[in-house]
Amino acid sequence: MAVSTFDVFKIGIGPSSSHTVGPMRAAERFIHRWLLDPGKLAEVARIRADVYGSLALTGRGHGTDKAILLGLEGQRPNLIDPDIIPSTLERIRGSKRIVLMGQHEIAFDEKRDLGLNKRQKLPYHTNGMRFTAYNADDEVLATRDYYSVGGGFVVNQDDAADDRIVPDETPLPYPFKSGDELLAQTARSGLSIAQLMFENEKCWRSEDEIRDNLREIWSAMQACVARGIREEGVLPGGLKVGRRAPALYRELSSKPEAAMRDPLTTLDWVNLYALAVNEENAAGGRVVTAPTNGAAGVLPAVLHYFDRFCPGANEQRVFDFLLTSAAIGILYKENASISGAEVGCQGEVGVACSMAAGGLVAALGGNPSQIENAAEIGMEHNLGLTCDPIGGLARASPAPECPMRVIAAALLACVPLSALAAPAYGPRLEGFDYGYPVKTFALESQRQPLEMAYLDVAPKKRPIGVVVLLHGKNFCAATWKETIKPLVAAGYRVIAPDQVGFCKSSKPERYQYSFGQLADNTHALLQQLQLGDVPVHVVGHSMGGMLAIRYALMYPQELRSLSLVNPIGLEDWKALGVPWRSVDAWYAGEMNISYDSIRRYQLDVYYDGKWKPAYEPWARMQSGMYEGPGKQQVAWSQALTSDMVFNQPVVHELKNLQVPTTLFIGQKDRTAIGRDQASPELKATLGNYPVLGKAAAAAIAGSTLIEFPTLGHSPQVQDPKQFNTALLKSLKAR
Length: 734
Prior knowledge:
This protein is α/β, with parallel strands linked by helices. It folds into three domains: 12-161, CATH 3.30.1330.90; 179-415, no CATH class; 439-577 and 649-733, Alpha/Beta hydrolase fold, catalytic domain (Rossmann fold, 3-Layer(aba) Sandwich), CATH 3.40.50. The protein has 32 helices and 17 strands. The strands form four sheets. It has an eight-stranded mixed sheet with strand order 10-11-13-12-14-15-16-17, sandwiched between helices. The protein has a five-stranded mixed sheet with strand order 5-2-6-7-8. A hairpin with a 5-residue loop joins strand 6 and strand 7 (140-150). Helix 10 crosses helix 16, helix 15 packs parallel to helix 18 (349-363) and helix 18 (349-363) runs antiparallel to helix 19 (368-380). Pathway: Carbohydrate biosynthesis; gluconeogenesis. It holds the Pfam family SDH_alpha. Residues 466-595 form the AB hydrolase-1 domain. This is L-serine ammonia-lyase. InterPro entries: AB_hydrolase_1, AB_hydrolase_fold, ASB_dom_sf, Fe-S_L-Ser, Fe-S_L-Ser_mono, Ser_deHydtase-like_asu, Ser_deHydtase_bsu.
């Protein structure tokens, strides 16, 4: 299902998108769709409109009755002139006659023809409506149920029965149904959220039309604020609530320099913008659903703040703000609700705050992950927010919450964008929790004292064996967390070290990295731990698979089995023609690493373009070291080890392995070191794990090959249950 930016942002009239805009659209749609055929409209002698549930309970206060009358006359929320509304309603009610679609006049008595069914609900939503047209013989010509599901969205009974919000199946180039999918699309495409939304919009309209529509939305927001700070008087509804925005505007305008000195005065302006929109909405003026009328003040206020107070504001950044915030609104619309009648004000003001926060960060130049974090912050403190309309009036609720919520959204502008990025960790992953106690092994290597961090998790009884888990280059000991638990439960003692140069271990500035050296370091650790006479099994993943092979070649007599999980090095990249690069070149590339680049790489190479929440901690773990104070140290260690991996393939020595070996190969993997520098023709052939796995199994005498057709580079992360079952079965067989 496809939802457009202009489904989220709709120009209409107040005071409620679900109780005013939606009913007006439904009434007009009923007449237009079912009665406008030639000759059919002329048969209509009477129209009956019934509203149910929330529409009936608070409908009069929200202007539902007025909206239906206007809709039956053919008025549309985005086109109607608010100034003609009073006279039009006075004519209909005074004459007790209505002109359907401005063409066919019939009698219409509200007491008889407009029913408020407060104790009844239609099946699919609390905001239900039923329209019925009769001929002169009181026979039904047409009847139809509609639901106003929030934000001005209207669905008919068929769409509601199929649980469809907008029955639009337009195929989009970048579809998304969740925040994870949205971030995955940006990572895979390299587009910003705003650019992605713009490309999707091109499925419905031209680029010029998109920009014109965005200008129209922004102009309507500006006009609403301008009218709100100008109009005086008392808001309709009988509560005698006076407009406050004009007086606040005069006060702030008398001291314009204060906003330049005092951030709190700046927030007074933000408060003013929100108040102006809210009061216009309560008065039935023209507003933009953002995502609803009830919360219409939040997003325009933050956008006005950006336009007036943020350096570099221009039209394109305003467009970025709107497109990004629309993407966030679509997520809530698709997965939750933006209807206050259905979920309370958390679905209106909360969503608006989330949209505004994400849009603001986008306009300020934030990346997709920072935008996501801002949107999440904008929502989390609104969870549980409810509505309590006094006398069924929109001007009593949720309008008062808007200024405070909009200030909360705008305050995110005061937070450095770095604070919204992925977490920052120390050069030895200080601050990242492994889930198990981390121990340290001190060793002397290459004339310098070093430390290896490791996990040592033992079963309650005497272990039946020891399993040594070796991590990949972009992973750490903790990435085995979902495998450690079942291994220990099965009776194994698990040792999972961080290799020198990685994660929580030392990162020496000068070190001659080789798999032989790392194998020697690991052997020293195991000797120190005095494992006893129990069998030892080594399991290596990715780069850890290369290390495991080297360890098995150096210490074959000490191992019961070898397990290789999508090991790299199964092809000689240099010999195949991948260009060599210096350590300095590797380092330059590492210095450009970010959360987004990590995620983009892993999506493309590891996970076949499908991102899951389970991958997130490990991407953030890796990026966190680059975001922290030890970035250069981390980047240098990674450059040195990249050089090691590239120049020390293991494919030529597979035939020498004597330890019983099992290969676990995720078939969707495309990992190949240096592929970014390879020619397009060569790149297409690299990292072909369905082929590499079979070739490796053929080269290793007596080996077993276990293939996972739907998994990629990290089976133990992608599907722990499937992987652990296969691993335990293999270990038991050894």
